[in-house]
Amino acid sequence: LLPAHVALSEREEDHVRHVGRILDGDSRPAQQVGDVKKNTGMSLYNYAMTFTMRAAAELLLHSKKSVAEIAESLSFSNRSHFYKKFEEYFHTTPARFRTEYSIKVP
Q1: Greatest C-alpha distance within the chain
Q2: 3, 30, 88, 96: which could join 92 in a potential S-S bond, CB 3.0 to 4.6 Å?
Q3: CB atoms within 10 A of CB 80
Q4: Ordered alpha helix ranges (H), the chain
């Protein structure tokens, strides 16, 4: 089972679709960033990081990639930055997260 904070809620899925429409629109970039903040309560960076961290969690649980490979696949050029962001979001290290939440198949 995935921790509840990894899966998207219906409300979050609506936000993703809405932000996608904002970013696909004809508005200026500064206006788009303001629209994201207005509609999500988060900066565009933090909003994107939320989904990046969820992708990291999914990869940790459902792939055999190393933490370093996952960080690189998510465009983190600095592995320590990846670890820091992951710990901020999940309050544990990527390795502990994988160990704690992975389903053990006999």
Answers
A1: 54
A2: 96
A3: 9
A4: 10-24, 29-40, 44-62, 67-73, 79-90, 94-101
Give the pTM.
Answer: 0.68
Q: How far apart are CA 47 and CA 83, in angstroms?
A: 18
The radius of gyration computed from the CA coordinates of the chain, to the nearest angstrom, equals 15
CA-to-CA distance for 67 and 51, rounded, in angstroms?
Answer: 17
Tokens linked to 33 = 């960033």
For the stretch 8-36, pLDDT in tens is: 567 656 655 655 555 555 555 555 556 66
The two tokens of residue 1 are: 């089972």
Of 4, 6, 5, which is closest to residue 62 (Cα–Cα)? 6
Cα(56)–Cα(104) distance, integer angstroms: 19
